[in-house]
Structures
1.
Amino acid sequence: MMQWDHTSSEISTQVEGWQDAHQAVDAAVDDLKYLWRQGQYDDVIFTGCGSTHYLAMSAASLFQQAVGISCRAVPSSEILLHPRQVYGRGKPLLVAISRSGATTETIQAAEKFKADFQSDVIVISCYADKPLNAFATLNLAAFAGQEISIAQTRSFSSMLVMAEGLAQVISNTFSPRQFSNTHNAQVAALREQALKYADPEQFQRVFYLGSGALHGLACEAMLKMKEMSLTSAEAFHPMEFRHGPKSMIDEQTLIVGLLDAHTYNAEIAVLNEMRALGAAVVTLSPDTHTDIRLEGHQQRPSIVHYMPFLQWLAYQRAVNKGLNPDAPRHLDQVVIL
Ligand code: F1P
C-alpha cells in the first residue's frame, strides 16, 4: 500500500459525501425554513479558517445571489480581532463552518457572536458533538465527509454541497434531486486528466482564476496546491489577472481557469491572452469548449463538480514530487490555540 493512501481514497469516494450532505439538507428543510422565518435577519456572516474560510467565501456568494440579502465572509479571527469592521447595523445570522468543529478561532468567534447579538448560529461541520456544535441553533453535519488526512478534500466538497443546499432551501430553489453514483466514474476520470498538468519540472507556479462563487473554490485549490505539494500558488478573479499578476507569466506557469457559464466569454478572453503570453492554460466548466468538461454538472448542477480535478491536481503534483499528500509539512488537522 502506498503511504499516501488516505487523501487519494478520500478524493475518490467523495460522491458518497455529496449524497450524504444533500440528504442531511433535505432532512433539515423545515427546520431551516422555520429558523429563517422567525429570525428576520438583516444580513448573514459566513466564517471559518483555512479551507473553511474559503468555503465561507463561496457560501456567502451563493447565499447572497439566491436570497438577495447582504452576506459576507470573514476568517474567524476577524470576528475576534476586528468585530466592528465585520458587523453591520442590523441583526445578523452567523454561519460557522468547520470540518473538525474544534478550531479554537471558530469556536471563539461563535461564542463572541452569541454574546454580542444573542442571535442564531448555523454550524456546518462533519461532526455534531464537537465544541463548536454547542453554539449552534441548528447543526448541519456532513458525517460522510469526515476524513483522516490533514488537507480537506472530501470534507470540503461535502460541506460545500451543504452550503449550496442551505442557499437553495432559503430561496425555495432546493431540488430533492440526488447526486447519482455515475459521478464516481467522472471523479476517477478527472484524476487521469489532472495527471497531464502535474509535472513539477514543467510548471514552477500555478495560478487559479475564478469569479463569483467560484473565487472561493479557486482560493481553496490554491491552498491545496500549497499544503499537499509545497508549490507557490495564487488565486485571482479572472479579470483582475490583467491588472498586474500577468507580469509573472513565463513558460513554467500553469493557469487553471474555473469558468462560470454566465461569464464565460469575458473570462475565456483573459485566458486566451495569457496563453498567448506563454502560460499553459487549463480551463474547467460545464461547457463543451473547455479543456476539462464537467460532465456531472449537466446531470446534477452544483459547483462541487469543480472540486475533484483541483484536488487531484495538487495530489498528483505532490506524488510526482515524492511528497506525502496525507501529511503536509508543519500542518495539523486542527489548529488549537
Ligand atoms: C480548518 C483548517 C484547515 C487546514 C488545516 C488546519 O479546520 O485551517 O483548513 O487545512 O488542517 O485547519 P476546520 O476548522 O475546518 O476543522
Note: The chain has 13 helices and ten strands.
2.
Amino acid sequence: MLAKKIEKILNDQIEKEGYSSNLYLAMASWADTEGFAGIAQWLFAQAEEELMHMMKFVHFINERGGHAIVPAFEQPPAKFDGIKKLFDQVLKHEQYISSSINDIVALALKENDFATHNWIQWFVTEQVEEEASVQSIIDKLKMLGDKNMYMFDRDIMTLRGSEK
Ligand code: FEO
C-alpha cells in the first residue's frame, strides 16, 4: 500500500512526464515544419519515450494500491527560437525532471518505502543518460555553429543510435 505522500509525489510526476512528452512533440512538430526532418525525428522519438515514462508511473501507482490520476496538461509553446536554443531548453527541462526524480528518491527513503525507492532507480539511471545525450548534442552544435545545420540534421539520428 502506498503512503498518501508517496502517491501524491508519484501522481505529480505523471503530469511532469506527460508534459515532457507534449513539449517534445511540440518541438518535433515545429522542427518538422522548419524543414529539419532528422531533428524532428529525434524529438518525435523522445516524445514517445516520455509517454512511456508517464505510463510507467500510472501502472506503478495502481499496482501498489494507489490511484493514478490523469491530469490536465499545460499547453507547450508552438514556436522555438532556433535549434541551439531548443536543445538548451531540452537540457534545462531534463535537469528539472532529474531534480524531481531525486525528490521522489529522497521521499521514498524518508518514508521507508523501499519498494518505491527500488523502482525509481530506473529513472535515476535514465535521467543520467538523457542529460548526457542532450549535452552531447549541444556540444556538437557548439562545434558546428549556426552553419552546417543540414549536416547536423542528417546526422542526429545516427547519434541517437550510438547512444541508446
Ligand atoms: Fe522522462 Fe526525460 O524524463
Note: The mean pLDDT is 94.
